[in-house]
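Troubleshooting log. The previous structure file for this entry was overwritten by mistake, so regenerating from the original sequence record. Sequence copied from the archived sheet and checked twice against the printout by T.R.
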Amino acid sequence: MKRKQFAFIILIFSLLVLFSTTSCEKSCSGMGTLKLTNKSLNTVQKIMIDGVNHGTIDPGEEKEISLAAGEHDFQQVGISGGTGCSAASVIIIECETTGFSCSN
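Regenerated output below.
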């Protein structure tokens, strides 16, 4: 009988350890981050992601945009004297940051 009680206690302890370690993991709810950098000297750029305007980014500025994990099309379009950068595709991974810089 004591063997069964000991095995049961070990099982309960193991489950408690398992649940306590998994609850500490970072939960990103299926989201990741796209970090954009405008390395141009004087061109303000409009941020377009999947055809949606996400505002502008000034010269020398960085912006982080939270996106659903998966593939996205984006472009930094020059709106003040420069050309911006060509359209690109990026894969966003849950809980990770993917960076892209534009220097035109």
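Helices lie at 2-22. Archived copy saved in two places this time.
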